[in-house]
């Protein structure tokens, strides 16, 4: 009994911090989501509006478009980062000269703050100043103007995110790959299994927990991307790279529509949780039904 | 929490089934507001969701 009390006392500070910084703000947003609260409105006081914010949201074309763009962005970066990260992890695990140096250089983007990454990429993509528009013109005869062409802006945002976050995927996959048991791999090679067969039937099942964790982290990060994109394109041209985080920021801060912004945040959180849960159920065999 | 197998295609415990019920409640309400509210009021969807949730928690 005494041990239990001591245990609770020891974790009490952590629980308190989690409650104040995690649960309390969530509950606040949950409540505000059901209020009409705009400090610039005729009545700046919060007024209970039931599900009106959510009713408006399901018809809000700008919100639905930003959701669609966010999912498109997430799908592109997640798949690209997993594939590139896997190949880089395999490469960096091989014995080669200057392996340590390559690993260090490869990890450098992770150490840069997202806002600085956005600023750097913006400098690289400014026409007449950055090297990317110059190279695109010289090598491919392509006019590269982020503020004019939506596809270029979207592709650049995706490329920036891949550049910034693939090292994280590589590091986690390297940890997973270096802990693979040798025996099944050797047995499969002796039995004459092809590399693809070994990857699909041995490597991938052993890597599943690592891949799952990595996908979770990157999925949640990609869904709430704001600062890099804000710095690089500002959500433009038009609203073509205005992902959900940026859209919520615009509603909550410049427009001070706290109720509507909270409702958007709640829907985004809901979709994130549902996606993660579906992914978890799909990727873990432990939930399969045994009849 | 004890896991059990009901009509859901996965093994679930009570928390899982409550979670699935809440997720479905939100999804049904949002879809109802988007597509069906001109034909039937929102409380119908709430009623349906509560019945569905009960069923999932008990038999899921």
TrEMBL record, chain A:
Sections of the chain in a coiled coil: none
PROSITE patterns: ABC_TM1
Membrane topology: Multi-pass membrane protein
Keywords of this entry: Cell membrane, Membrane, Transmembrane, Transmembrane helix, Transport
Localization: Cell membrane
The UniProt record lists the keyword Lyase: no
Keyword match Membrane: yes
Entry GO terms, CC: plasma membrane
Domain ABC transmembrane type-1: 67-279
Signal peptide, first to last residue: none
GO biological process, one term: transmembrane transport
Residues passing through the membrane, by range: 7-35, 67-89, 101-121, 258-282
Family to which this protein belongs: Belongs to the binding-protein-dependent transport system permease family.
PANTHER family: BLR7065 PROTEIN, SPERMIDINE_PUTRESCINE TRANSPORT SYSTEM PERMEASE PROTEIN
Protein name from the UniProt record: Sugar ABC transporter permease
Source species of the chain: Gemmobacter lanyuensis
TrEMBL record, chain B:
Pfam families named among the record's database cross-references: DUF2160
InterPro entries recorded: DUF2160_TM
Transmembrane segments annotated in the record for this chain: 14-33, 39-57
Top-level taxon in the UniProt lineage: Bacteria
Keywords annotated in UniProt: Membrane, Transmembrane, Transmembrane helix
Protein name: Uncharacterized protein
């Amino acid at each position: 009994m005494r041990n239990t009390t001591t245990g609770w006392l020891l974790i009490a500070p952590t629980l308190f911090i989690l409650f104040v910084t995690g649960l309390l703000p969530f509950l606040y947003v949950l409540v505000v989501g059901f209020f009409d609260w705009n400090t610039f409105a005729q009545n700046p006081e919060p007024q209970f509006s039931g599900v009106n914010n959510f009713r408006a949201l399901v018809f809000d074309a700008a919100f639905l478009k930003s959701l669609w763009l966010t999912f498109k962005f997430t799908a592109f970066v997640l798949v690209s980062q997993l594939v590139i990260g896997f190949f880089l992890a395999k490469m960096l695990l091989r014995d080669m000269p200057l392996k340590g140096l390559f690993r260090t250089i490869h990890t450098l983007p992770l150490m840069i703050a997202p806002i600085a990454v956005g600023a750097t990429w913006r400098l690289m993509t400014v026409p007449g100043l950055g090297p990317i528009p110059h190279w695109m013109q010289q090598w491919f005869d392509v006019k590269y103007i982020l503020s004019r062409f939506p596809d270029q802006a979207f592709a650049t945002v995706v490329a920036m995110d891949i550049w910034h976050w693939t090292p994280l995927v590589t590091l986690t996959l390297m940890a997973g790959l270096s802990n693979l048991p040798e025996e099944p791999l050797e047995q499969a090679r002796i039995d004459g299994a092809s590399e693809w067969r070994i990857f699909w039937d041995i490597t991938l099942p052993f890597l599943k927990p690592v891949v799952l964790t990595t996908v979770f982290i990157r999925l949640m990060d990609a869904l709430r991307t704001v600062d890099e994109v804000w710095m690089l394109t500002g959500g433009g041209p038009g609203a073509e790279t205005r992902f959900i985080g940026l859209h919520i920021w615009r509603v909550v801060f410049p427009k001070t529509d706290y109720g509507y912004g909270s409702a958007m945040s709640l829907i985004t959180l809901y979709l994130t949780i549902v996606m993660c849960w579906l992914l978890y159920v799909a990727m873990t065999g432990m939930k399969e039904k045994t009849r | 929490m004890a896991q059990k197998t009901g009509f859901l295609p996965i093994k679930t415990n009570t928390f899982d089934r409550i979670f699935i019920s809440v997720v479905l409640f939100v999804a049904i309400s949002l879809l109802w507001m988007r597509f069906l509210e001109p034909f039937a009021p929102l409380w119908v969807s709430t009623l349906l969701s509560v019945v569905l949730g009960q069923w999932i928690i008990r038999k899921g």
